[in-house]
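Pilot study result, target chain (733 residues):
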Amino acid sequence: MSEIERRFLDTLLFWATQKGRIKDGRLRGHGMQVGETVSGPREDLSSAEVKKGYEFLLSLVPGRWPLPNLCSPLFQKFIDYILQNVKDLFINKKELDKFVLLKNEFLVLEGSLKYLKTFLDFIKDSGMELEKSRMLFNHVEVVTRNAAYICYLCFVEEVDDNLASSLRPTQLVTLLIHPPEDLCVDQEKLSDILNCAEGLIAKVASAAYSFSVEKAEEVNPAILINGLFPGPRINCTSNNNIVVNVFNHLDEPLRFTWNGIQQRKNSWQDGTPGTMCTIMPGTNFTYRFQVKDQIGSFFYFPTTDLHHAAGGFGPINIHSRNLIPIPFARPAPSDEYDVFVGDWYNKGYKSLKKILDEGRTFGRPDGIHINGKSLKVGDKDAQPLFTMEAGKTYRYRFCNAGLRTSVNVRFQGHPMKLVEIEGSHTVQNVYEFLDLHVGQCASVLVTADQEAKDYYLVASSRFLKNEKFSTVAIIRYANGKGPASSDLPAPPPENTQGIAWSMNQFRSYRWNLTASAARPNPQGSYHYGKINITRTLKIVNTRSQVDGKLRFSLNGISHANAETPFKLAEYFGVGEKVFKYDLMSDEPSNTDKVTVVPNIKNATFRNFVEIIFENHEKTIQSYHLDGYAFFAVAVEPGTWNPEKRKNYNLVDAISRHTVQVYPNSWTAVMTTLDNSGMWNLRSDMWERYYLGQQLYISVLSPARSLRDAYNIPDTNPLCGIVKGMPMPKPYTA
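Predicted structure:
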């Protein structure tokens, strides 16, 4: 590392009131190893050195921010004030211990916030009024922004050997020059700014996670994260930066995707076989991404082989910022509960993989689970899943993380008010039953307004021939008396009548046009129905035999992954050695002839596309699109033709990322391809996904600019034919 880079890092770290040092090629923002004692402040740091470093910082960001004049008497006093109080700013060992969450987890220090408080104390001691000094206000606003980003970039220590290449001064400069939107803008009172800074630091601190992934051999085996099934919750707010350090303790490669997170400009972190190499056994990898302009209920899961069948999934809950109202009844829900439902196979994921590799289907499941457990009515040893207090309202976030089975959920004696589906606030209809198809998530409000005792939450399979599976979980009232009744709410109809029932429920979901989501403007201000369609993809799924083995395909192409992820091959300019674009036509021609080959569609950046999913089979389908949300504008029986557009909902269709297609029916969705990257469009029925029912959409910005797409992170591993190749010329602003 050059001297100028050292000076830059040192300067940034000083302005957050901590000692910065590069040791053995690793960033040590607080100047010590975890467990060491604090050696104290830098006594040799003079005012002249501070000025020199600060001048260098100004030279890097000319004209961007209205920073104080170095020669002003005010700034001279400020430097002296910091030097006199630097001992109060340093974090001692006892304070440090509070921030060490787990071994090998992230360490987040509060130096930036302490610096800001010191600056505000200086203003107060000087008898100045922040509101009347625009220069001071501007500086505090800048410091507030820096507090979040310096904390995130410099004071998050990753206790492993990968950090050396994960942060570069150029990355720091880029993020400092381009701060996040909507942070502390137009705050005019000192207390408001301080509260905003505290909130930012708290959010950054809560956005660092460590996943230790291992098997519980006694259960089939199940895959656990930090010993949990389901895995730990990622709890965050719109526009937060999320950092997840994944330690792979399995004996196989591993990779995670973040289902529903759009990864704006950043398909490098999407975690699919077409975008990322795997995390090898005994190693770790740190995912870094932003939940840009999103709210709602999502989940993560592994995308390697059949690991998904053994667990490894967990919730991602994105909350609206404090300034944006939530369209729920006041007071807000007393608590939030994450509920994962899905099918379960006792064979184990390795046996399931072997079945698929042999060209067979793994058939019906062995049961349905709720958060990894399958209970029967009257089980005396059953513990409550959740507890509610009488008179209070709770938010339940449901996700179907199963492999192939739709699930219906219902509460005994308690209706559900639907409030959100996959990142969209909905019209708040009330339901007794709710169908969740594979890969889908939804939030409901449940009010504890019944007799104080136990009640059952019921989950049952949908649309399985000849056999039904169900399970229950106990919802307990605090201080309640009496067990749950054995009289369970009956499930909705099945077979043809059940398909019609489920289809009508789908049509009843409506976008809440007046509610705000991640931004202050109402959802309905985006008039998707007035945008001209520039391209239509009509996709028909088929099931067939290739060389005596089962394969699933889209428009006659059964997708096959490659040793080199497609995004890497494309980025390094060797895509033609790995795949060919557009082997699948925009409309099906001869779907009887199936070709097994990488299925990559080329798309035009910012086109508004219509995708028609047509299902000629007798089983329900579920499709997911990475990188985007789409408007699910229609679902109907039969086959699609252009005349069907007259029946589209062009006003308040739900914007979501996963949609079902009923047997012998079609579903239409619309989206704008405004997110540059390589994005997976896949069946969420995992045997279909594994055996070819998927494709990738390559969306490249013609500008080749950082405005539209990020460069590959330095920490991303390389594999396949690009391993060892020189790095391509990076995108620039």
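One observation from the pilot: The domain at 208-319 is CATH 2.60.40.420 (Immunoglobulin-like). A full batch analysis is planned for the follow-on phase.
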